[in-house]
Amino acid sequence: GSGDTLFTYVYLDPIKPPKSIMLQFHTNDWEHRAFWGEDVIPHGSGKGAGHQWLGNLPEPGQWVRLEVPADSVGLSAGDRLDGWAFSQFDGTVYWDHSGIHTQIPQGNEGFQSMSVWMHFIEQAKDAELPKDLKTIAKKGSDKRSNAENQILRDYFLEHVCSETRFLFSALHDQKKKLSDDKSKYEQAIPVSLVSKERKEPRETFVLVRGEYDKRADQVQPAVPEILPPLPKGAPNNRLGLAQWLVDPAHPLTARVMVNRFWHQHFGRPLVMTAEDFGTQGELPSHPELLDWLAVEFIESGWDMKHIHRLIVTSAAFKQSSTISPQALEIDPENSFLSHGPRYRLDAEVLRDSALFISGLLVEKMGGKGVKPYQPSGLWKAVAYPSSTTANYKRDKGDALYRRSIYTFVKRTSPPPSMSTFDAPNREACTVKRERTNTPLQALTMMNDIQYVEAARCFAERVVEQSLPKTEQRLNYAMRLATGRTLAEDELKLLGNLYTKHMATFKKDQEAAKGLIQTGEAPRISDATPEELASLTMICNLILNLDEIMTLN
Question: Which of 361, 360, 322 is nearest to 340 (CA)?
Fold first, then answer.
């Protein structure tokens, strides 16, 4: 605006001062310059707005405010200033806060407009103002403080006055964007209901035969007397119970947890009745090992990763799972750890492994449950007519390939491919899963759309390597899935099988096309239908090997 002043703060090094300093301002060009000191900076020339000398250098060794009248460097009212440049010749210079000192003209028209607005908000019953401003406005001009008048004036200039409010539009847009981003972020945060302690706990009684109207003795919250009492100073509520559970003196928590960790890796726990550590449960097969692991768990700060790493790097876990006839007779269940663990992997691990090998697995963490492939009509068969979960609506895209832990589970109709591999339906807490071996499991691995699609994408990963020979492709597929190459007899067997599939699919192109169109994942290779279909069958076979399905 007219009469504006540009300013900056500068500090010249007293030991090594410059010979000259310059400020440059950009509108449509950089021909707006002011300098102090010697005329040695090669920007602009002559005397004028493009090369304006404003005096000697300021005093070194102290912060000095430099001011440049806008009109002295050729800047006029209405010019849009969009760049500053700070220049120096020789020496050391420190620049700091810079800006424009401006004054909005307060002519009669502007003053009258604000007066009219102030009069309006004082008299109007429903003036569109923020609540705090309404309170200030109702006081009347004679009762408002200077600070309150300034608040009203600032609001008028920012939101009401047509001559000034456009200056705030960019700021408002940025503020709205930040507000929207904040809302999206807050909406993405998972929300869970929590319980709150009553100020006055309600009375609780033992009920005779469980009948609510037949009260016996009044009782208070407590822990079983056979176990240690609550820690000293712990409140007699849920917080105290939590502190009691993780008290190092608690005899059960750490032992129960490390027993489950051991079960997870060895296929059998140290205490076979993992769900029952009471008098009806079995004694541990290795009590000293159980105690040592429990103490290690506590002393590590309840670090679960530490215990998992400790177990899988132990000599016991790294043993061969091959069992001799003598060991099989003496230790059929591996109670004495005579050999390494060997058991079929859980349903979730099998599915995630197939997705990982195929390159389909989406490793994003967190978020809502997802609905992958599932036969239609299963939910409807067990739903009430008005149920909101009568129809299963399958997800699309990445949601189909997320880890199995995120799969949405309807307890009355759990995912069938999971149930086939003994995954619990979650109707009740399951500490120890049963492991069965049924023909349905083999049929699921060979024919379920999730596994057939995984085999097809697995095959495409192999094709993408552009290996010229079939033997190289087969070896690469085996190494990708198991970490080893094929033995000579295995390579010959798979080579013959691949040749047979090629002959079959060349004769039946429709079957080949139908196979490679399984699933929603797009094709990424340019292999012929019979070539990709044949390799898909080989990859499907590899995914069904004991080496994939079994921990060895």
Answer: 322
Please provide the average confidence, as pLDDT, over all residues in the chain: 89
List Cβ neighbours of 36 (8 Å cut-off, separation of 6 or more). Answer: 20, 21, 22, 53, 54, 55, 56, 57, 58, 66
- For the chain, report the end-to-end CA distance as a whole number of angstroms: 80
How many of the other CB atoms lie within 10 Å of CB of 36?
19
Number of domains composing the chain: 6
Report how far residue 219's alpha carbon sits from residue 419's, in angstroms, rounded to the nearest whole number: 42
d(CA 173, CA 181): 12
CA–CA separation, 550 and 552 (whole Å) = 6
CA distance 203 to 150: 58
Specify burial of residue 405 (Cβ count, 10 A radius: 0-12, 13-18, 19+). exposed
> What's the CA gap between 80 and 208, in Å, rounded?
85
- Whole-angstrom distance, CA of residue 20 vs CA of residue 13: 13
Q: Could you tell me if 403 and 475 lie in one domain?
A: no
Q: Return the residue matching tokens 């030991």.
A: 15
Exposure of 263 in the CB half-sphere (CA atoms within 13 A): 20
DSSP per residue, 155-216 = HIIIII-TTTGGGGHHHHHHHHHHHHHHHHHHHHS---------SSPPPEEEEGGG-TT-EE
Could you give the CA distance from residue 353 to residue 547 in angstroms, rounded to a whole number? 12
Same domain, 508 and 491: yes
Q: What is the pLDDT of residues 492-521, one digit of tens each?
A: 999 999 999 999 999 999 999 999 999 999
SS (H, E, C) 40-51: CCCCCCCCCCCC
124 DSSP 8-state letter: -
269 CB burial (10 A radius; 0-12, 13-18, 19+): buried
pLDDT of residue 485: 93
* Per-residue pLDDT, 501: 95
For residue 133, the enclosing domain spans: 108-168
Residue 126 binned pLDDT confidence (cut-offs 50, 70, 90)? low
Report the alpha-carbon distance of residue 225 to residue 491 in Å, rounded.
65
Q: With respect to residue 349, please indicate whether it lies within any of the assigned structural domains.
A: no
Contact 259, 270 (CB under 8 A): yes
Q: How far apart are CA 31 and CA 25, in angstroms?
A: 7
Q: What token pair was written down for 100?
A: 């424009």
Is 184 contained in some domain? no
- 3-state class of 96 per DSSP? strand
The total of other beta-carbon atoms located within 10 Å of residue 200's CB is 6
Closest CA to 498 of 478, 479, 517: 478
Task: Classify 154 in phi/psi space as left (phi over 0), alpha (psi -120 to 50) or beta.
Answer: alpha
pTM summary value = 0.64
d(CA 531, CA 502): 6
Structure tokens at 363: 């490793």
Contact 455, 536 (CB under 8 A): yes
Q: Is the residue at 220 inside a domain? A: yes
